[in-house]
Design brief:
Serine Threonine Protein Phosphatase 5, Tetratricopeptide repeat, mainly alpha
């Protein structure tokens, strides 16, 4: 009796073991991408590793290192906090990594608290020398502080944590989460006016357009020179295609040169949105604050302005840097796409 080709093939196929990628597979690719400084790819591979092996704490720890490398310190600390909540003292290195991120953010009290926790709990830890150096630096900054200054510093730290959290949600277009944080900020820090303007912006982006416009218009009625209100109203009207209404605010912003870095960034972004690319490039190039120039809108709108003023290489460089830090930016195509 002869065996048919079909039956032979079926028997051979039944012996084939399908390849199912493991967390280790994705993790190794993530590490390779990280060492090659292909941070966008590293984030994708490591997220896949976490998704495949959610009970492996090493994977989110490594992802936090990638986030730190690209300046996403808040995102890094969110991951590390989750690892500590689940695995506790098994991963004491998380305390040092968090301290390092807080130091980068300028939250020195939090940095000191976490580095001291690391040094207390570690036993011949990998980061012991680096942690001692960090603590020495933090102590040197604290030497001349009196009690009153320390209380003020605590309040400032709290405000900065809220602000970074709000910016994180805004930059990732998580409008509901941003609204929650900003509302709490407005209650805790009523004199911090930027929170109210960011709240109006998140409100507009979440679909409550008229309410957001009313908030800013009411504010402008009380304070006609308020830069952030002009920025928001120009943005709201441009997004609705109401160019004439937007132009009133744009004309004013063209002649405003604020001192505060956040306001400088907001004006530069608005001018770029309005198609005033040369003016926008001049404003963007004048920015110097490290935290400001790491914002998503900085990379996106500076890139667009540079492209439209005949500097495609700079535009592409800015766009690529932005995509490494904010992977969702890559979904928007590039600076040459009509925004």
């Amino acid at each position: 009796m002869t065996t048919s080709l079909n039956s032979s093939a079926a028997e051979e196929n039944s012996n084939i073991i399908p390849f199912i990628p493991s967390g280790k597979f994705y993790f190794s690719h993530g590490i390779q991408a990280f060492h090659k400084r292909r941070f966008n790819a590293a984030v994708k591979w490591l997220k896949k590793a976490i998704e495949t092996s959610p009970d492996e704490p090493l994977y989110p720890c490594q992802l936090s290192v990638v986030y730190t490398e690209v300046g996403s310190y808040h995102a890094a600390n969110q991951l590390l906090t989750e690892v500590l909540a689940r695995f506790g003292k098994e991963y004491v290195d998380c305390y040092y990594l968090m301290a390092n991120n807080y130091a980068h953010l300028g939250l020195l009290n939090d940095a000191k608290k976490y580095v001291e926790t690391y040094l207390d709990q570690q036993e011949d830890g990998e980061f012991e020398e680096a942690a001692n150096q960090l603590l020495e630096m933090l102590d040197s900054l604290d030497e001349n502080e009196d009690d009153e200054d320390e209380w003020a510093f605590d309040d400032e730290d709290d405000l900065l944590i809220y602000q970074e959290t709000a910016f994180y949600h805004l930059e990732h277009e998580e409008w509901d989460q941003a609204l929650t944080v900003l509302h709490e900020m407005m209650q805790l820090f009523p004199d911090f006016k930027l929170a109210k303007h960011k709240y109006a912006y998140a409100l507009f982006m979440s679909g409550e357009k008229q309410e957001a416009i009313d908030i800013e218009q009411e504010w402008l009625d009380k304070d006609p020179a308020n830069i952030q209100s002009h920025v928001n109203l120009a943005t709201f009207f441009l997004k609705q295609g109401l160019k004439e209404e937007a132009q009133v605010h744009i004309d004013l912003l063209k002649n405003v040169f604020p001192m505060h870095e956040q306001q400088k960034l907001a004006v530069a972004e608005t001018l770029a949105r309005a198609g005033l690319y040369q003016e926008a490039v001049e404003r963007f190039s004048a920015l110097g604050d490290k935290q400001v120039v790491r914002r998503r809108v900085y990379y996106k709108w500076y890139s667009i302005a540079a492209y439209h003023t005949g500097n495609p290489s700079k535009a592409l460089n800015l766009w690529e840097k932005g995509c490494k830090q904010f992977p969702t930016l890559s979904k928007e195509g590039g600076p040459w796409i009509e925004q």
